[in-house]
Design goal:
Length: about 270
């Protein structure tokens, strides 16, 4: 078994090569061409796939979760169809796309209520199960820790200007490069109550921001902060920061609900 780490293999040709079971991490495949390749049971996570063209492919039993826009299959742009179906299934999903301060406040009301229900559902399980991964995804506790990181990043750092808002329990996304000063402890196992206390503090910070929104502040930009961290030190539209948080909260709650289904089924 060979390891290729930190090497420049751009322009290489692989023909009749067996790469089954290989792991590709932080790899640049821009402009690559795949012909007559077998990628059955392959897993893609945190992968940028914009601008891809597929011809003569066979797609069966494919499961995709992510941001989808202008996905054309056999001449049909299915992106709008997917979004319309998701809005039909989850009527409050449309509220996660607010346009004015009142809409952002209403959206956060929805987030607080739905997460309250999800947390109460999680409390009914054995606490140890809340540390278990389902299908290689984050555990319930890790999901909450990641949302603390998201809030620290886009609210406390980007909007409120704290250059280093991190708590030791913050959990960045897996593909994020290690960044000085930003914690990433995958081994710690805090209790649900410990994480919820931290989560309540961060959610109250979001509440304070949305409650204080005006049309002028919503359309404004953040001030760059000093020091390394995430997001990068530059100016961001306040609206985009808040929409990012709403998207994180909405999507990760659905992931958590999906995994709670699996954990509950395991106990029945």
């Amino acid at each position: 078994m060979a390891d290729f780490i930190g090497e420049d293999l751009s322009g290489s040709r692989f023909e009749r090569v067996n790469l089954a079971g290989s792991r590709f991490e932080r790899i640049n495949l821009n402009g690559a061409e795949f012909r007559a390749c077998d990628i059955v049971d392959t897993r893609f996570r945190g992968v940028e796939m914009s601008g891809i063209v597929m011809r003569g492919v066979a797609l069966f039993d494919v499961d995709i979760h992510g941001e989808i826009g202008k996905l054309t299959i056999n001449g049909v742009d299915v992106g709008p169809l997917v979004y319309a179906e998701l809005d039909r299934r989850y009527p409050e999903r449309a509220k996660m796309r607010p346009t004015d301060p009142a809409g952002f406040r209403e959206a956060w009301d929805v987030v607080e209520r739905l997460w309250g229900d999800t947390v109460e559902r999680a409390r009914c399980l054995d606490p140890e199960l809340l540390h278990e991964s389902v299908g290689g995804e984050w555990s319930f506790i890790e999901t909450l820790r990641h949302l603390v990181f998201a809030t620290d990043s886009w609210i406390r750092r980007a909007i409120l200007g704290d250059p280093s808002p991190w708590d030791p329990l913050d959990l960045p996304w897996d593909e994020m490069p290690d960044t000085p000063g930003v914690p990433r402890d995958r081994d710690v196992r805090p209790s649900l109550d410990v994480v919820l206390e931290l989560r309540r503090d961060r959610m109250s910070a979001v509440r304070e921001v949305v409650d204080g929104l005006t049309d002028e502040s919503l359309d404004g930009d953040t001030e760059p902060v000093e020091g390394t961290g995430w997001p990068e030190s530059r100016s961001y539209p306040v609206r985009e920061c808040l929409l990012t948080i709403l998207n994180e909260e909405w999507e990760h709650r659905l992931y958590a609900e999906r995994d709670l289904d699996a954990l509950e089924a395991r106990c029945s």
